[in-house]
Request: fold
Amino acid sequence: MSRTTPTDGSRNKYPEPATGKNERLFNHCRNNATGTGRRPARCGPIVHAAAHPVYPMTESGMIGIDLGGTDIKAGLVDAQLNITAQVTLPTQAATGPDGVVERIVAIIEELRGLPQATAAAVGIGTPGPLSPTRGIVYRSANLPGWRDVPLRDNVARRVGMPVTIDNDANVAAYGEYRADPEIRNLVLLTLGTGVGAGAVVDGRILHGQHENASEWGHMIVHPGGIPCKCGQRGCLEMYASASNIAKRTAQQIRAGAESSLDDPDSISGRDVADAAKSGDALANKVWDEACHALAIACINIQHALNPQRVLLGGGMGNAGEFLLDAVRRHYRAMHWNLCDDLPEIRLAILGNNAGIIGAAAMARDLINSTAQG
Reply:
């Protein structure tokens, strides 16, 4: 059974995007510090006016869908990015691609059937790897049996609406971007079962040559370190995902390490965070190693993309300032001093709604780009 939830738009409303022509103020590096104690030079860009496209060209709502291995979460989203209704259905991933598409179609029809509901297009965030251009999901670890599935066209044909798809982490990052008109460049790291990531560069989702960019969870932060299922060793997600923090803590308890967490079979990432806050030495060690790895990742992201913000979300994001303080401490201890171009490290703000809002905004971009020719 689905769960349809009308929502109060005022709780989901975000500031109107800026209007007017884009302006950039660049303050180029001057008198770069070279370790002599001088203050680092500030690097541009400093100001981005009208960072976002101006909405709307159409007043119609959009449907945003966050497709996961457990649940399909969807929402009807208006022109101001307010979620006006939400529906959740179990994914039933074991039914394969055809069964999941049936449930996506059902959730779209349920939202379209609500009183006064209007929807012009559908955006879907889905686990990948995939091709947004071709609309095909190549594989998915969370969706068994998915191989070269033409998800976009299969759904579009059934519902008679334009559909666009992208990687779920990219879509969540785009939601965070659309929620804040001050931002033009950001990276989102979602710290849950693994480490998902998405990047928005100059207002556009970063896809790369093979449409598989932003796999920051598989950035190597410890060469020769813990083996990852991807085939590499020392990947970020082996140290900084909520699930692997719990796994590493449990392994050390089984090996004889002392801890207030006395049942290694039931430890969660939240348990490790809470124990670390309470002074548990083992939990604090594992937590600190995770935050150190995240700080390394943030520095590498800084040099690769130079974003305005790096956002931390997912299950570990629930630790709030306890997470931020440790990551920022390690970051400050390691970053360069040649230029003051450091991104802000903050918590993601949209929580579980990021995928819905990002997918709907992506669908609105599709309609607007079509209207512009």
